[in-house]
Design brief:
single chain, 176 residues, alpha+beta, Alpha-D-Glucose-1,6-Bisphosphate, Chain A, domain 4, 6-stranded antiparallel beta sheet, 7 helices, 6 strands, 25% strand, elongated
């Protein structure tokens, strides 16, 4: 389960086993993800974050969703804390010369960019890469890469390894 039994009970009043039994009785195994979320909201008054958490936990328990699976395929996230200002980390993504130092030869399409904090990219294979850059101090930031639309567990492992290595290279490039 994505969250401990103790935590889900503390926040929703039921354990995972109790939620699975309640949702089975409500025939949730025949519902879409959105329908289960709506059921949790309307019938049980579960808050929005917990609606998603209970639904995903139920789907996993019933074999309807694998770890790292989303509605858009599989996804993974990797992050690194970097001793560099957020603006400098962003330029390392947006300026080709700086990017080639740590992400050589990669070409992608920038779909959207929010000033200084995020980028949404289309990777060459058609998957989506979202980059979030969060300042932690004047000269420190966290760079998080979330890669979605992956084909399965093997692609998740590959992307996690790839992005871990690339973010280590980004850190070395910016801190060196």
């Amino acid at each position: 389960m994505p969250v401990s039994d103790t935590a889900v009970r503390a926040k929703t009043g039921r354990t995972w086993a109790q939620w699975c039994a309640v949702l089975d009785r409500a025939k949730a195994q025949t519902m879409s993800h959105r329908e289960v979320v709506a059921l949790l909201h309307e019938r049980f008054g579960v808050g929005s974050w917990w609606q998603q958490m209970v639904t995903v936990g139920y789907e996993r328990a019933r074999g309807r969703r694998a770890v790292n699976q989303t509605a858009q395929g599989f996804s993974t996230s990797v992050s690194r804390t970097i001793a560099a200002p957020a603006a400098r980390a962003r330029r390392a993504w947006t300026e080709a010369k700086l990017r080639d130092a740590w992400l050589p030869g990669q070409r992608f399409t920038v779909r959207s960019a929010a000033a200084a904090k995020s980028l949404r990219l289309t990777w060459p294979d058609g998957t989506t890469v979202e980059v979030r850059i969060t300042p932690r101090a004047a000269s420190k930031c966290v760079v998080e890469v979330t890669h979605t639309g992956l084909a399965g567990a093997a692609a998740v492992r590959g992307a996690k390894s790839y992005w871990g290595g690339r973010l280590d290279a980004l850190r070395a490039s910016l801190e060196g």
